[in-house]
Amino acid sequence: MSAVFLRCANPQGLVLFTQKLSWTKGRVRFISGVTGIEKVLIANRGEIACRVMRTARNMGIRTVAVYSDADRHSMHVTMADEAYHIGPAASQQSYLSMEKVLEAAKMSGSHAVHPGYGFLSESTEFAEACKQEGIIFIGPPSSAIRDMGIKSTSKHIMSAAGVPIIGGYHGEEQSDERLQAEAAQIGYPVMIKAVRGGGGKGMRIAQSDTNFLEHLESARREARKSFNDDVMLLEKFVEDPRHVEVQVFGDQHGNAVYLFERDCSVQRRHQKIIEEAPAPGISGKVRQKLGEAAIKAAKAVNYVGAGTVEFIMDAQHNFYFMEMNTRLQVEHPVSEMITGTDLVEWQLRVAAGERLPLLQDEIILKGHSFEARIYAEDPNNDFMPGAGPLLHLSTPQADQHTRIETGVREGDEVSAHYDPMIAKLVVWGEDRSAALKKLRYSLKQYSIVGLNTNIDFLLNLSTHREFVAGNVNTSFIPQHYADLFPAPRAPSGVILCQAALGLMLQERKHTQCFTQNSNDPYSPFGSSSGRRINILFNRNMTLQLADKKVDLIVAYNKDESYTIQIGVEEYLVTGTVKTEDGVSFLHCSVNGVKSRPKLVILDNTVHLFSMEGSSEVCVPLPRYLAGMSASGAPGGAMAPMTGTIEKVFVKVGDMVTAGDPLMVMIAMKMEHTIRAPKSGVIRKVFFSEGSQANRHAALVQLGEEEEVTSK
């Protein structure tokens, strides 16, 4: 019997794929594992670009990267078969430039473009431009992006399709007066939301009429910056809701399936921080209703490819359509883990014209999965994002049930121009309890030095009794703030001993190098044993843990152990440093108790990582050096990060009170309001609108009222 092949081309004559076929139970099955898309350009950066490249490479598809000035040496550029420079660091001039991305696609001879998430992934214009150029857009039809991208339009479509929606105002009249009147009619609290985009951008909650206009203006500014559109809609804000979303997938043959739901309720700044699948505590009956409602939504717009239908769910498990994201979501790996699928592979196959690999009754839910987003941010400072180099980075070991989705390596820079996500840690277990145990274990194996991260916060979150019980909602963090942000622990004697040992072992290593390179191997200055002319001596050492300084007395013993006295306590300490797979471990014993923490010493700081947590122990700088390194704005406000000054609210001579807004800064794709740290008079304003300020730069100088009035 001769083989049957299907050769498919688009109207421009571009061959999409050549595929061997068979028929089983009336269904067409594809024998070959590789589509005819031979080269794909990924119109994105970082983690998602690397994620798409891995699957494309496994399918034998060549990959093309695009990069900005800031990403010239990035991981996604290194991974790709080809890479094209598309402009400056600012995303508006690079990753958001349709013309530059399409030019790169044409120059590289790419058959298709994968937009990832963010940037151009939900741009109707970009999807249409790809089609006009004869390039496959790996996503839904532009009509679906348009209908679902404008939230007011999507509400009308969903209502007509029988998908439950929540009440609000979606009208074209956008005056302040009309929106404020509608908010009063809906009843506070009210959600102010940009009609375009997602990711928490252009979204604010107004609790009362008094702060409505302030939140409205702020949401508009952020929406203009993110989506070039400041049209708003209003919704009744459901108190303490759950955020539950359904992964859907459609093909070009009218088939659509759902791959169950994810719970993304735990959020900060309206952005997800940890996700899981399936949603905890939801019955099979509700799960089926959610899936069927999501399919209604997808079919209402003839959806093709990967999409997510997002719902708000109340305490009684009633759910209401919120929006549809017409792209692959950041959290898609948890859906892959519980269904044994590769959704990027599905995207590539469906874009090439294939039918869905599985029908609904063939998609089986197995086990439970969590995804924790690891960010460069400071949870103790309102989750303020950070930027800078990753001086040290070690991760858990990836395996069949543990995925490290990342776009950075040790030494790479987390740029101020883009999202501060370092990685996604994805785990799977036979049930929720097993998956949660795996998540906690893996988080404790993560070690990052150079930037503040949210790892300790994620550990606090994943061990919280209510989270363990599955009692989650979008107000989880503020509701349990005291538990999630515990007071700093008192300095541990064991930690201080480990830090002191690490410093002394480093000192020994340096002196051994000195001795080897010295012409006088018997010089007493080449000894780190504590012996000077056959006499053992004690040394004083001061260490600092958080804001507390601790004095230690170290006695060098003949057997190369140390006796360390901290206050009235004495510790017998021994150990050595061993390197395993490029990571240093401190193999030590403190009063007979052995441990093996990771050890990183940079400048004057010792970083220790163990299954009990992480610690930073500093050697305090001499006073004259500390004075030289101090930076700041005496009596004023500093830039928390590098960013662009979007708006300035004050001028010299203005009186302000503590908490008053001074400036608005755009950084990490987010709008940050800089507020007065104290009451006083504006003496100097150092930056104007549109200028860029570096981290820790003085923005505004404040003086006491008496200073000004007495002059």
Structure report:
The protein is of the alpha+beta class and 711 residues long. It folds into five domains: 1-138, Rossmann fold (3-Layer(aba) Sandwich), CATH 3.40.50; 167-236, Dna Ligase, domain 1 (2-Layer Sandwich); 261-484, 2-Layer Sandwich (D-amino Acid Aminotransferase, Chain A, domain 1), CATH 3.30.470.20; 493-623, Glycoprotein, Type 4 Pilin (2-Layer Sandwich); 631-709, Beta Barrel (OB fold (Dihydrolipoamide Acetyltransferase, E2P)). The chain has 19 helices and 47 strands. It has a nine-stranded antiparallel β-sheet with strand order 36-35-34-33-32-31-39-38-37, covered by helices on one side. It is globular, with a radius of gyration of 29 Å. The chain starts with a strand and ends with a helix. Mean pLDDT is 88; it is low at 7-34, 624-633 and 707-711.
Helical content stands at: 25-40%
What fraction of the residues are assigned to beta strands by DSSP? Answer: 25-35%
The rounded Rg comes to 29 Å
CATH topology name of the largest domain: D-amino Acid Aminotransferase, Chain A, domain 1
Give the CATH superfamily of the largest domain.
ATP-grasp fold, B domain
* Sheet with the most strands: spatial strand order: 36-35-34-33-32-31-39-38-37
Assign the CATH class of the largest domain.
Alpha Beta
How many separate structural domains? Answer: 5
Q: Span from first to last CA?
A: 101 Å
CATH architecture identity of the largest domain: 2-Layer Sandwich
Number of helices: 19
Query: What's the total count of β strands?
Result: 47
Shape: globular
- Could you describe the largest sheet, including whether it forms a barrel? 9 strands, antiparallel
Taking pLDDT < 50 over at least 5 consecutive residues as the criterion, the unreliable ranges are 7-34, 624-633, 707-711
Mean pLDDT over the full residue set: 88
Structural class: alpha+beta
Question: What's the oligomerization state?
Answer: single chain
